[in-house]
Write a structure and sequence with these properties.
TIM Barrel; binds (4S)-2,6-dioxohexahydropyrimidine-4-carboxylic acid; single chain
Length: about 450
């Protein structure tokens, strides 16, 4: 079985061009001038349709569509093991495939925590069984994410863990974090920090600022993020180990990263679709659908985060896909857990809210995060002969709206219901196999 994608515009790190792409045995075997589907795909004089019949080639007409390397999410909560009522590795992988992702990094705040080889191997194996996207478990930085004892980085690195994080919590103790950086330096792994000084955010439900004062709700000050961003940048300066800063939300955090990069430090950063599209004003509804950690900030912050993406200060868009069951999110703001779905809407939100060339948006969704995740040999690759066929075919202009009942996620906590999205994934190809065809998952 082979696949031929005809008539599309290929967009990858090397640029954009019209080309037909042939896939066989999990790899790209031909990239041809449009219409030149010869080269083994179809006998001269035959149409592509005939090739489908005679050659067991599936032809995907990508006229008007973009063919690009598959997306890589640096920040996915798959909830399994432990909270399968909200998401499973299979349902989350399906949501990822529908969003154009061929690989996701699974966050470690599972139960039990991804802090040892057995749990990490379980998550990877469940991902393999689902076969909908490559699931790469992160490891936690500390045992049980309790913040007081480092996990066995070397053992976890030996089974392929490349990102370590206590996401959901930042590592509060600066000495322990220093040791984490020192320990990681020789292992080729990256510490990924959830930047939040907890002493400053206890009880908070939204961004601390004017809107929060008006609503009379407890606030999460930007300072709590900025302090940890600053601390970890300085620890990178001290230790030489790399850091990846998760879900940045504040203008001053972006500025700190900009300066760190100018200093040549090994700092990368991500931002979420919701932090480039929604503000703290949404909390006027008092709806916990808008409760997320870090919280939605002011329009000034949103614009600063967008500017950070535009100038490369922020390397990647990462979803922080955080499923929660309806009963949890229907609680009052103070009791409801933070988090929003993200995988199925990321492209549509990003294209609608970033005034950037399409290739730059795709870069933040694909090859840039692939490298940060240590997956750059397999994902986010140029669309070229011999490369692994991990691809997304998308319509950058399709307008669509989320239909909650049609989400693949087990949860429904998306703030984007009723919002016009622009840009939709049509097909996703994982190791040469279609995981999504015509915007529907194949399994
Ligand atoms: O909003 C969030 N939800 N932020 C996090 O850091 C964790 C996540 C979750 O696990 O629900």
């Amino acid at each position: 079985m082979s696949t031929l994608i005809t008539g599309g515009t290929v967009v990858d790190e090397t640029g954009a061009r019209r080309a037909d792409v042939r896939i066989e045995g999990g790899r790209i075997t031909a990239v041809l001038d449009p219409g030149d589907v010869g080269a083994g795909a179809v006998a001269p004089g035959e149409s592509a349709d005939r090739a489908e019949v005679h050659d067991s080639t599936e032809v995907l007409d990508a006229t008007g569509l973009v063919v690009c390397p598959g997306f890589v999410d640096l920040h996915t909560h798959l909830r399994e093991p432990g909270r399968e009522e909200a998401e499973t590795i299979e349902s989350g992988s399906r949501a990822a495939a529908l969003g154009g992702y061929t690989a996701v990094v699974a966050m470690p705040n599972t139960d039990p925590t991804q802090d040892c080889v057995s749990v990490v191997e379980f998550v990877r194996e469940q991902g393999r069984r689902a076969g909908l996207c490559d699931v790469h478990p992160s490891g936690s930085i500390t045992v049980g994410r309790r913040g007081d004892q480092l996990t066995p980085f070397a053992e976890l690195a030996a089974v392929g863990v490349r990102l370590f994080t206590d996401d959901g919590d930042g590592v509060q103790d600066p000495l322990l974090m220093r040791r984490a950086f020192e320990y990681s330096a020789g292992l080729g792994v990256t510490m990924a920090q959830h930047c939040e000084v907890k002493r400053l955010t206890a009880g908070a439900v939204m961004h601390e600022g004017e809107c929060c004062s008006r609503l009379g709700l407890p606030g999460w000050p930007a300072l709590a993020e900025e302090l940890m961003v600053h601390r970890d940048i300085e620890l990178v300066r001290l230790t030489g180990a790399p850091v990846h800063l998760l879900h940045l939300s504040c203008a001053r955090s972006v500025e700190l990263v900009r300066r760190a990069k100018a200093d040549g430090l090994a700092v990368t950063a991500e931002a979420t679709p919701h932090h480039i599209s929604l503000t703290d004003e949404t909390l006027r509804s008092y709806s916990a659908i808008y409760k997320v950690n870090p919280p939605l900030r002011t329009i000034h912050d949103v614009e600063a985060v967008r500017a950070g993406i535009a100038d490369g200060t922020i390397d990647a868009i990462a979803t922080d896909h955080a499923p929660h069951v309806a009963e949890a999110k229907e609680q009052p703001l103070d009791a409801a857990p933070p988090g929003m779905l993200g995988l199925e809407t990321a492209l549509g939100v990003a294209l609608g809210h970033l005034d950037l060339p399409l290739a730059e948006v795709i870069a933040t969704l694909s090859w840039k995060p692939a490298r940060i995740a240590g997956l750059g040999e397999v994902h986010g690759r140029p669309v070229a002969v011999g490369e692994p066929a991990n691809l997304t075919v998308l319509d950058p202009d399709e307008r669509w709206e989320v239909v909650p009942a049609q989400l693949a996620s087990r949860s429904r906590n998306t703030p984007f219901v009723g919002v016009a999205l622009r840009g939709r994934v049509r097909h996703t190809i994982l190791h040469g196999e279609l995981t999504v065809r015509d915007s529907v998952a194949t399994r």
